[in-house]
Sequence to fold (119 residues):
Amino acid sequence: MDRNTLIIAVAIIVIVLAAGVLYFLMKEEQPITPVVSDQKIKLTQEQDLTFVELTEEEKQALKDQGFDVPPAGDDSKTKSLQLVSTSDEVAAIAADINATDLSGLDAELAEIDKLLSGL
Fold:
């Protein structure tokens, strides 16, 4: 191999490497699309109040953390609080308020405060 061929081969290699470096430096960065959307979802009252069934793993994790596992299905107290009139008349609203039994809703409040103060 003569000297001129060697110089041409080295020059071609340097040009190819320089072109590759320039290509990657000039290439436009693709924005990273977030996997989790920050958009809020508006739920209707029925969607917001639907019961979520826990898997056995979730129930066991709650028990391991010292929490009581919630009962399966809808409880009667929640169902009774959801029964309201669709009327917008003042008398119907007053009747709904008077018929709502809120006694015992704060029965676990002391326990919740105790748990929260331990955080």
